[in-house]
Write a structure and sequence with these properties.
By secondary structure, the protein is of the alpha/beta class. The chain has 19 helices and 17 strands. The strands form three sheets. The chain has a six-stranded parallel sheet, covered by helices on one side. Helix 11 packs across helix 12. It is globular, with a radius of gyration of 23 Å. The N and C termini lie far apart (54 Å).
Length: 452
């Protein structure tokens, strides 16, 4: 289902801060479109994105600080940034005027000729996608990794592909909302798991799960769908009667991964299991895989060890934007000695009952430090219901810098004689105090460098 952008009037809705909107604008300009970019943010906040446009910037009309109804009525194609809600009035106006709605994923899938591995899910998709790519590189030197990352947006990667080697594409639910427009699905589709998330954007879990299901709706009988046999939403996905062959994980793979599971946690065992399954499908030998496991890449901001000194280890898990993500991190680090947890953030209409039970099991009340926000209030309430704060009041901070100084003060000299882990795993999103979770992670790293 190809399409021609030459001389088409294209509106890019949302330049954004993470290069996705900029790379989309640049790509459609380079493919002959007449482009307007509109963003509600003022120009001064978008300087980095504007700079990344390079020469294409001269050929684009910009509308900042507002959206004009006329732009949505007069353009033939609207390229929608992931941050844009589906229900916005402007997209309704565009559809009524006959415009075609696309996003970077739907365009990428239309034009990509390579065999594609698509990875989605609530947790683990970035790690899984990176580890699949790590294995594929052992056989395919021109394999590529793209998707839900500011490092290599889809449309920045598209024209560099060789049309033969496998490409791994990480797909968020927002990417998948418009994927059916392309008429295509990845040859291998992976859904790592599904947990409550983004319920500030989706009216229900079924709505959220249905967006994820778009990853396999256009598969054929020659394609493959990998589903988590231990996740409660797998039955829901089977209900769509996928045409591709369903492969369940985890499975026995002829490798002993028990040591890995103990060191990296059950969630990473699942991620690795999927990566090995996909690698085997593309002809990577078990011997090559076994060797490659020894140098698996550490994924930035995903339980990333940012400081290791004597008995002290500091972990940056800023992309833990759901309670389940922090539960997974606590499962991994709970037996590492003295454990400090820094958590809290912005609510996405998620529940914290199970999170509170896990915190109570793993973290002493004096070792819990909360960064205030709408989710933090729910966390404190859940912890109180769990009987957590019996002898002390919760440590709640408005400022990350002040919080980190307080953690440092609480690391008494005797603590340093123990094995001590400081885990930054917010369990919530970040928008009340930071631009996004990556901005939050960068700031945490700078503060750790400053104070430790």
């Amino acid at each position: 289902m190809n399409m021609d952008f030459r001389n088409k009037r294209v509106l890019v809705m949302g330049l954004g801060l993470l290069r996705g909107g900029a790379s989309a604008a640049k790509w459609v300009v380079n493919h002959g479109a007449r482009v307007t970019v509109t963003d509600l943010k003022p120009r001064r906040e978008l300087q980095r994105s504007l700079k990344s446009l390079g020469e294409a910037r001269r050929k684009i009309k910009f509308v900042f600080g507002r959206h004009r109804v006329s732009d949505f009525r007069n353009n033939e194609i609207i390229v929608v940034n992931p941050a844009v809600p589906r229900e916005t009035l402007y997209l309704k106006i565009a559809k009524k005027a006959g415009a075609q709605l696309e996003n970077e994923a739907s365009i990428f899938f239309r034009f990509c000729r390579n065999p594609m591995v698509g990875v989605t899910g609530t947790r683990g998709k970035t790690t899984t996608a990176n580890w699949i790519y790590h294995f594929l590189k052992k056989k395919y030197s021109h394999a590529a990794l793209t998707g839900n990352s500011s490092d290599n947006p889809m449309l920045a990667a598209l024209d560099k592909l060789d049309s033969k080697s496998p490409v791994v594409v990480e797909l968020s639910s927002w990417h998948l909302e418009l994927l059916p427009q392309s008429g295509k699905s990845p040859h291998v589709a992976v859904i790592t798991n599904l947990y409550p998330d983004h319920l500030n954007r989706y009216p229900s879990m079924k709505s959220y799960a249905s967006a994820k299901a778009n990853i396999f709706l256009n598969q054929s009988k020659n394609d493959f769908l990998l589903l988590n046999k231990d996740n409660s939403w797998t039955k829901f996905f089977r209900g769509f009667k996928p045409k591709g062959k369903i492969v369940y994980f985890p499975v026995s793979l002829g490798l002993n991964l028990e040591k890995f599971k103990r060191a990296y946690g059950l969630h990473n065992f699942y991620n690795l299991n999927v990566a090995i399954l996909v690698a085997r499908h593309f002809g990577i030998t078990l011997q090559e895989i076994k060797k490659a496991i020894k140098n698996l890449p550490q994924i930035r901001f995903r339980q990333e060890i940012i400081l290791k000194r004597k008995n002290l280890e500091i972990i940056n898990d800023t992309t833990a934007t759901t309670p389940e993500a922090t539960i997974a991190a606590l499962g991994r680090f709970r037996n590492t000695g003295e454990l400090f947890l820094i958590t809290g953030g912005t609510d996405k209409k998620l529940g914290f009952t199970e999170w509170a039970r896990t915190v109570k099991k793993c973290v002493k009340p004096g070792n819990l430090f909360l960064l205030n926000g709408s989710a933090t209030k729910k966390m404190v309430l859940a912890l109180k219901k769990a009987g957590y704060f019996r002898k002390i009041k919760p440590y709640i901070f408005e400022n990350l810098s002040v919080l980190i100084k307080a953690v440092k003060v609480n690391l008494k000299p005797k603590t340093y004689n123990l094995s001590t882990t400081i885990l930054f795993s917010p369990g919530a999103t970040s928008f009340e105090k930071f631009k996004n979770e990556f901005d939050r992670g960068e700031r945490f790293n700078r503060l750790v460098k400053l104070h430790f």
